[in-house]
Design a protein that fits this description.
Length: about 450
């Protein structure tokens, strides 16, 4: 039996792909198709892939051309696969002529003619681009703008901020700048909101009323009833409404969740998540509260993310311990929240006025996961066991602090008309409920 292997991303499968696969199949008796994972594509600079790995695998499977489908995940895997599967022929498109000649040492290399006039890149570039409006005064939006230029699906970018006169120089490259939110909404298809949480409700509602898609910094709102109203409005108007909590879209974090769901460390019994920073402490101490988020809104959603995604939202009890400012009890220098579940416990620590090690530890009955600081931007984590030789380390590239992946997921959602499901509305609502209780001082103990 003559075995043939080929590789590709196969994004937005088209007849050019199909012709290549048929040509590869004709070279032998058994065809193995390697589909490139999202993480490996990103390492190779292909960050505009529109379809998920599973969508691309399923599209190949439905062709009934491949005898076996594998996933390509790392540099050098081709040699490993050729040896592992006893491959006779490696084949790829003619646009790679010479690139894989080194594989002749292990098998025969054949370059197949590509179908002229079509490619996934051309299909993506021909699709309608989203015009995106950035809303808020924070310079963080400049990072969002810079990352948006890596996304093929995003076309014109506009900005709405309160003070346009003292605009930082780097913002001046943006296509359209205004201090009028209604004017901005007329110019764009979607908005990215990075404003104070107390203002989110009105800003998001106005965008949804104008039938614009919304990507909003978490927490989406600080009141559960407002959350339900906005979710209903988005559904009624056919709009995407997503939290821009970029940790949820990072490759390392999503892979971590999959390992836990697979039972790698047994049953999870405890989660400890810490997110703190002192970079804005002076503003708090000088009582410049109009320029500052409080600790629970700045860090709370991020710290609660792994708790609710791993243990669920049906906790039995919670306690909130906060060090509040005397001048304004809506602002906390530090907050610790403990959750008690039927079979587990969790604790989060967040702070703008207290510094601690920003790691994430997930304890299970067979081992534990350690994610070093800053865990919310991680490209690396460890799974540790009683026997050290069983320990595993995982590395996943993180580009643009995850903003790039967040924007890509949002564009996919707008294109497909459905939320990509990186975290559910149930999790988002649970975050809002906890923050609502903070403001109402429910289940709260004040510390000095």
């Amino acid at each position: 039996m003559k075995r043939v292997i080929t590789y590709g991303t196969y994004d937005m499968l088209h007849y050019g792909h199909i012709n290549l696969l048929r040509g590869a199949k004709a070279l032998g008796d058994y065809l193995i198709v390697g589909v490139t994972s999202e993480d490996f594509d990103r390492k190779r600079g292909k960050i505009n892939v529109r379809q998920s790995l599973m969508e691309r695998i399923e599209a190949i499977r439905e062709l009934n051309i491949a005898d076996e489908i594998i996933v390509e995940e790392y540099e050098g895997q081709k040699i490993d696969d050729i040896k592992r599967y006893d491959v006779d022929i490696f084949t790829v498109g003619s646009d790679w002529v010479g690139k894989f000649d080194y594989l002749n040492e292990y098998c025969k290399v054949i370059y197949l003619d590509r179908t002229k006039g079509i490619s996934s890149s051309e299909i993506r570039s021909e699709q309608t681009k989203i015009s995106l409006g950035l809303v808020g005064d924070d310079e963080y939006l400049l990072r969002v703008y810079n990352e948006s230029r890596y996304i093929n699906s995003i076309g014109k970018v506009a900005l709405c901020r309160g003070n346009c006169e003292n605009l930082p120089q780097n913002f001046r490259e943006i296509d359209y700048i205004t201090d009028n939110y209604q004017d901005l909404l007329k110019q764009v298809d979607a908005v990215y909101i990075h404003s104070f949480p107390e203002n989110h409700y009105c800003i998001v509602k106005e965008a949804l009323e104008a039938r614009k898609h919304v990507l909003c910094e978490a927490p989406l709102v600080v009141d559960g009833k407002q959350f339900d109203e906005l979710v209903h409005m988005a559904e009624e108007n056919g709009c995407i409404l997503m939290n821009s909590l970029r940790t949820a879209y990072a490759t390392a974090y999503t892979r971590l969740l999959l390992l836990l769901k697979g039972g790698m460390i047994g049953q999870v019994k405890s989660i400890d998540a810490t997110c703190t920073s002192l970079k804005n402490k002076e503003l708090l101490m000088e009582n410049k509260l109009d320029e500052q988020w409080n600790s629970i809104c700045e860090w709370g959603p991020t710290a609660m993310l792994p708790v609710f995604q791993i243990l669920g939202t049906d906790y039995l009890k919670k306690t909130i311990s906060s060090n509040l400012l005397k001048e304004n009890t809506r602002f906390d220098l530090f907050t610790k929240i403990d959750f008690i579940y039927a079979n587990a416990v969790a604790s989060i620590k967040v702070g703008q006025g207290v510094k601690s090690e920003g790691n994430l530890i997930i304890s299970g009955t067979e081992g534990y996961v350690y994610v070093p600081a800053p865990w919310w931007k991680t490209d690396y984590f460890e799974v540790r066991f009683e026997k050290m030789e069983q320990n595993r380390r995982y590395f996943y590239q993180l580009d643009g602090e995850g903003i790039r992946y967040l924007l890509l997921a949002f564009c996919k959602a707008v294109d497909s008309g459905r939320d990509p499901g990186y975290f559910t509305g149930e999790v988002s609502r649970a975050m809002v409920d906890v923050i609502t209780d903070f403001y109402k001082q429910v289940d709260m103990y004040e510390i000095r």
